[in-house]
Amino acid sequence: MLKSIFRKLFVLSLLIISIGLVGRIWYFCKDGFNVNRLHYSLPFDQKLQNENVDRLSVLLNDSYHYLGRGRQCYVFASSDGRYVLKLPRFDRYCLPFFWQAMPSSFMSSYKKSLYDGRQERLVFTLESFRIAANLLQEETAVVYLHLHRTNSLPRQFVIYDRLNRPFAIDLNQTAFALQEKKAIMMPLCIKAFKDRNSKAAKKMLLSFLEIIDVRAQKGIFNRDPSFLKNFGWDGEKSVQIDIGSFWRRSDLSKKEAHLLSLKEGTAPFRQWLAITDPEMFDWFERQFAKKVQLVECNQEPRG
Asked: Burial, 240: exposed, middle or buried (Cβ in 10 Å; 0-12, 13-18, 19+)?
């Protein structure tokens, strides 16, 4: 009798493990994508209801296929390879199912703290998108940002997931950012280092430094220190393709913010470059020093 019970428990355990394993495999096959993760109640703004979105019709007339995901968004690329559609992963800002299923009295203070923290990250992320679209449009290649309900966008817009399955979404009710697609800059820069193509490498590094400086001039900081995948290159100029980590500080003067943002924004890259290519590092340090000197010599406006 006891042996039979153990056998049944063993079989049940194997079944549970198998179901869990199949679920994880399916999750990885989809790269975690699920249209339910895109759901978010967009605010209504009467002033924006007459916004002209006709220019988007051509851009959204193409089909968009799954490209990958970042911390904040799922990314879909247009068939012609010119644009990417970024759809925020709003499920990241909700409580996990385990906590939602728990009674409200169960660890209520921790549950509230967890929820508040995720909501703070949501507010930060959406504000970062606005900074990119409104203050760094050229530096981030953002074509359009949609964070409010509209009536004139496609209601049956089809996207294709990693498994090439079609999903129809109503863009009027969906938050998204449309951005020009760029090649990742750093692999191209590293190749230029290896090929000893200093002209091409310096062109990319100068453009990279210019983006950081423009961002710093506007008092904008970036919480994400990564640079290996966050910057693109179109053959002529750099573009910051990651738009989810921008923020501003109100406790600093314009000059202080400019200088601090410039130093913080380049520090991880300069540390990496010092190890990767010391000769190019020496050149880059001279260019960086010129930028710093210009900021330090600039007088704060009076009043």
From this structure: buried
Q: What is the dihedral of CA 133, 137, 139, 143, to 10 degrees?
A: 90
Single-letter amino acid code for the residue at 293 = Q
Q: What are phi and psi of 156, to 5 degrees?
A: -130, 60
Residue 250 — very low, low, confident or very high, per pLDDT cuts 50/70/90?
A: confident
CA distance 287 to 150: 46
Q: Answer left, alpha or beta for residue 222, where phi above 0 means left and psi between -120 and 50 means alpha.
A: beta
> What local confidence, expressed as pLDDT, does residue 180 receive?
95
CATH topology assigned to domain 183-297: Transferase(Phosphotransferase); domain 1 (1.10.510)
> Exposure string (b/e) for 91-113, b if CB count within 10 Å is 16 or more?
eebbeeeeeeeeeeeeeeeebee
Looking at the chain, how many residues does it have?
303
End-to-end CA distance of the chain: 89
Say which residue the tokens 């929820």 belong to. 115
16-23 contacts at long range (C-beta below 8 A, 24 or more positions apart): none
CB 265 within 8 A of CB 245: no
What is the pTM for the complete model shown? 0.85
- Backbone φ and ψ for 227, nearest 5 degrees, come out as -130, -15
Residue 52 has a CB neighbour count (10 Å cut-off) of 7
Would you list the domain boundaries of the chain?
Answer: 33-180, 183-297
Long-range contacts of 120-128 (CB under 8 A, 24+ apart): 121/92, 121/93, 122/90, 122/93, 124/247, 125/72, 125/88, 125/93, 125/244, 126/88, 126/175, 127/246, 127/247, 128/243, 128/244, 128/245, 128/246, 128/247
**pLDDT confidence band for 303 (50 / 70 / 90):** very low
Answer whether 284's CB lies under 8 Å from 270's CB: yes
